[in-house]
Amino acid sequence: MKNKISVSFLALLIATITTPVVAENLSDLRKLLSTKECFNCDLSGSGLVMANLSGAKLGGANLTQANLSRANLSGADLSGADLSGASLYGANLTGANLIGAKINGSDLRGAYLHNAIFVGVSFDTAYLQGATGIPNYVGTPEQFVRWGMIEATKGNYTRAVEHYNKALTINPQFSFAFLNRGIARYRLGDENGAVEDTEMAAKIFESQDNTLGFQTSQQFLEGMEMIKNIQNKPEKESGVERVLGSVGSLLLQFLF
After folding, report:
1. Which is nearest to 68 in space by CA: 119, 21, 109, 9?
2. Under DSSP, is residue 132 helix (H, G, I), strand (E, B) or coil?
3. Residue 179 contacts by C-beta under 8 Å, 6 or more apart in sequence?
4. Dihedral, CA of residue 190, residue 151, residue 124 and residue 214, to nearest 10
5. Which residues touch 93 (CB under 8 Å, ≥6 apart)?
6. How far, in Å, are 70, 81, 85, 129, 165 from residue 65 at the CA level?
7. Cα–Cα distance measured from residue 129 to residue 150, given in angstroms and rounded to the nearest whole number
């Protein structure tokens, strides 16, 4: 028993020594909360859940691993700030200035990003599920389609369509965006829109000599027509799943 306790204690001691601990800089934290001004401050690891930081001046601040979940950062100056690994889950960043900020690994799920400025910011490793107001210029058409597909896998088809719309705003001939939007529209009950988008996808795939894409689009169109003629509800529902499953392999190849 003593040996087991000793081994356990030793393992705990080693873990304590080797695991980095992010500590709050209380002086900088107090300054921020009392004045809403803390340029180039060290706020790494700070707990600022639901904090009212509207209009705060945080240019160049170190906010790595800070918890800003559901914080109000509307109109805040976060230019050049380091938000790597920070939680901004559900945060309000409406109109915030994030020019040159770092958001590597940041959690922006459910965040409000309307009219925020993200010039010079890379979203490659940020988590954006459920975020609204993402500007068109922050992503490529491929990224917007991937974000849309992630929303679709969670059943958020309306948000998925918003991402596909942005992809098509950047590249109006992006066949994958049309096909994905067609599927999302079908899930939302917009059969006419689904057919229109899928027909456009098929046309573009054909012009690009993408045989697999063209055949997949045609298969989806035929499946929608077949389901329309099924009268029995359970059979219709199972038919929908079969048809959507048949296009899944191509879309998953694109996602990964």
Report:
1. 109
2. strand
3. 197, 198, 201, 213, 216, 217, 220, 247, 251
4. -40
5. 73, 74, 76, 111, 112, 113, 116
6. 15, 12, 5, 19, 32
7. 7
Lowest-confidence region among 86-95, 178-187, 247-256:
247-256
Which residues are registered as beta bridge partners of 117? Answer: 97
- Domains belonging to the chain, first-starting first, are 22-138 (2.160.20.80), 141-255 (1.25.40.10)
3-state helix, strand, coil in the chain (%, to 5): 50, 5, 45
Over residues 22-76, the pLDDT tens digits come to 445 789 999 999 999 999 999 999 999 999 999 999 999 999 999 999 999 999 9
φ and ψ at residue 151, rounded to 5 degrees = -65, -40
Whole-angstrom Cα distance, residue 248 to residue 235?
20
Measured over all CA atoms, what is the biggest interatomic distance in the chain, rounded to whole angstroms? 74
Q: For residue 96, what is the DSSP state?
A: -
Which residue in the block uniquely carries the two structure tokens 């993402």? 134
CB 107 within 8 A of CB 84: no
The token duo for 191 is 């059969």
147 by DSSP, 3-state: which?
Answer: helix
pTM: 0.74
What Rg, from alpha-carbon coordinates, does the chain have? 24
Q: Distance between CA atoms of 54 and 38, rounded to whole angstroms?
A: 13
Q: Which residues pair with 62 in a beta bridge?
A: 42, 82
CA dist 10 and 2 (Å) reads: 12
